[in-house]
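TICKET: design request
STATUS: open
ATTACHED STRUCTURE:
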């Protein structure tokens, strides 16, 4: 009995050590972020955000300094300013968590903050600049949580499910038996990528238009149906590996619109991080090509726009549109 209690105590102690280690990792990222973005940090910042003691905050700052000194290249990153009583960023600062402190991460979090979607546990901001949004922010789409997690469960276990789907072409929801295998975001809406047994092919379903999804119960079988050209029956797979359009990638070679003045083209090339040859490659799943072309304003209809409204064009346009139409 005493041995069991001792073993349980040891397990709890191990769990606590792991939990505290994870917590400290988050606090070290917080220190790195604040130094990178605000140029300063103090113990109170750590105490207030993580609800820890002042001595623990001091230990975290010491641990951070130790990590910086042992990193490559060795550097200071921060020093204590006795006048303002804060740690300030040094001239040799280089983040030890570059992904956390990257411009992309900062701006993504700032956008989520401005939209009210940034979870407080991820909100490392001290100073927040004024942010205005010039993007269309549609109302929160009505995605049913039961539908979403039944879909995710079906993807995880490769099961088939019945869904009721609202289409723009029908008045009432229609029932479909589908085998979901992925989720996709087109910039505005989430889609479910699934094999449809009614249409005998892979399709996209707008997630917010699925009004009901049954609990997944049966493993998704292969589909067997009469061959449209009359050669008996066809049998096709329904898994992610069988979705050729999903697994096939197409390289979109982007370049500055040649109709722009040369000075403007140089700006666009710099803005998009284009190579010396004036292009940048954007790989895209063939299944999502239609959405990407719309999002980047690279459709044939967009070709009529004036150059200043269509800064980039496709360098491999004929290939991309051939692939969009189903060619190789």
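STATUS: resolved
RESOLUTION: sequence designed for all positions
ATTACHED SEQUENCE:
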């Amino acid at each position: 009995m005493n041995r069991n209690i001792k073993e349980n105590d040891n397990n709890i102690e191990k769990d606590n050590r792991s939990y505290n280690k994870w917590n400290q990792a988050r606090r070290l990222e917080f220190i790195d972020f604040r130094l990178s973005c605000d140029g300063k940090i103090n113990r109170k910042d750590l105490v207030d955000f993580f609800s820890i003691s002042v001595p623990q905050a001091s230990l975290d700052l010491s641990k951070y300094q130790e990590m910086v000194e042992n990193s490559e290249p060795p550097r200071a990153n921060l020093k204590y300013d006795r006048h303002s009583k804060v740690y300030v960023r040094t001239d040799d600062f280089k983040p030890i968590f570059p992904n956390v402190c990257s411009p992309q991460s900062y701006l993504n979090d700032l956008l989520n903050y401005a939209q009210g979607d940034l979870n407080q546990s991820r909100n490392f901001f001290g100073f927040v600049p004024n942010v205005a949004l010039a993007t269309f922010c549609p109302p929160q789409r009505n995605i049913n949580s039961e539908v979403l997690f039944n879909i995710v469960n079906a993807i995880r276990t490769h099961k088939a499910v019945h869904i009721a789907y609202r289409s723009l072409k029908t008045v009432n929801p229609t029932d479909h038996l589908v085998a979901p295998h992925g989720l996709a975001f087109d910039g505005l809406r989430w889609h479910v990528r699934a094999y449809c047994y009614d249409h005998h092919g892979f399709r996209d379903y707008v997630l917010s238009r699925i009004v009901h999804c049954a609990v997944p119960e049966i493993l998704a079988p292969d589909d067997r149906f009469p061959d449209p050209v009359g050669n008996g029956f066809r049998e096709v797979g329904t898994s992610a590996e069988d979705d050729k359009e999903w697994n096939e990638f197409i390289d979109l070679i982007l370049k500055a619109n040649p109709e722009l003045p040369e000075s403007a083209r140089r700006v666009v090339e710099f803005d998009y991080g284009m190579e010396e040859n004036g292009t940048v490659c954007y790989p895209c799943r063939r299944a999502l090509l239609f959405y990407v072309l719309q999002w980047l304003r690279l459709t044939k209809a967009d070709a009529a726009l004036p150059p200043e409204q269509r800064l980039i064009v496709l360098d491999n346009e004929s290939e991309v549109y051939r692939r969009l139409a189903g060619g190789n």
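CLOSING REMARK: The chain is about 35% helix and 25% strand. The longest helix spans residues 2-37.
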